[in-house]
Prior knowledge:
This protein is an alpha/beta fold.
Amino acid sequence: xxxxxxSDKELEYLTNKTEDRLEKAVKNIHQxxxxxxxxxxxxxxxxxxxxxxxxxMAGLQTEGVTQLKSENLTSNDDEDDNDGQIIIRKIKSxxxxxxxxxxxMKMITSLLSPIFTKRLLWQNINGQSLIxxxxxxxxxxxxxxxxxxxxxxxxxxxxxxLNDWVSIENDKQNxxxxxxxxxxxxxxxxxxxxxxxxxxxxxxxxGGFLVSAMDIMIKxxxxxxxxxxKLKEKINxxxxxxxxxxxxxxxxxxxxxxxxxxxxxxxxxxxxDDSHNVYKQLKFPANVFLLNPPYSxxxxxxxxxxxxxxxxxxxxxAVLIQENAGSGNGLPYTKEILENNTLVASIxxxxxxFNGKASVQTAIYVFKVNDPHNEKKAVTFIDFSDDGYTRQNxxxxxxxxxxxxxxNAKARYQEVIDLVLGNVPDTHxxxxxxxxxxxxxITLKGNDWTYTQHLKIDITPTExxxxxxxxxxxxxxxxxxxxxxxxx
Length: 488
């Protein structure tokens, strides 16, 4: 009933507040793991990912299954009858009731079972198992937040929290960098996502882009469909048929599946596979492409973009990528992409976007798919380095909140969306007069896509420049006279 009366602004505030509480709760539980010498030295990052995921799957309320409570965990010190076995049975019930495919159930249980059969987790230590101790915290502090009916990229919060302590596979290559939710929302809007979109992400990570896209699609459906039965059918269609994600890393894939199952099972079209090998097998009518690729891939990740666009007949793509991929490091893919697609916008992003997790300078490149680039076409370049947010380094902060709106960030994000979509914005922070907005041509060489390459610096001296030069000279001359007098 409360949600029926909340405005979009109030819902956004509630979502941010809930995500902050969720991240703080995850941090506290992970700190407990970190402080336990047995767990700290025995569990690698993947183990922790699977441990968190399994405890959450086992505890979520599921129709037809009695919810697992802390007191149901017996802490039996027995190889065949212990808390780990209880968790595994509950995970299977959860997946079965959520109608996960047999293949998906087999894959998930094969990843999780080795964790919950570890003796160090289920053995009785001082009256209870470590599983029971950790589940008690999950049951009390995390599950109520996940059952709030808000669209949360909660597995991204888990992964980001684990990153505070340890690096993960391919981390040195910046291959696993979780895109913040406010950026996934921005990109989904830049790509014209609506209720009729078919959205895919071929390096989906924990599924953050798909969560944001699904949220936008469902909201659009609710705004435009008045008949309750038709709305219900449309939402089911969106979740089961209009989203597709592919992820190579099994440990990240399981987070994406869990993420989308919690959204009402948008996990139907999620593949644990190498996207380069499955494109020809896919029969998905994608018209929205969202991506933050592994930057160590060919063309800094633009090989993913070229392959995806080659399978699309129309629509838009928004790609968050290392910015210099657009100034030559993405060749030959950037040049080849322009042969069949139009670069609509190039957005220079804040250099602390990933807040210490990755040090690369990024940009969002927006494309119109299956429309060859015309050299006379104006491309929109935006300096979005000052986006209105202040970020804290989460490693140096004891607070879960690491993002603060300190200068009208919400309005600035909406202004960028309006500028790229061709709307008249309500605010005017990014303008051609102040140089933060540039409309310019690019060549078809694929190496002149960055904002700074189109920034024109006026070197013509002004009267103010002349006055400053004269003032500096007079100041120097006076200082010389004073020094001469003192030496005499």
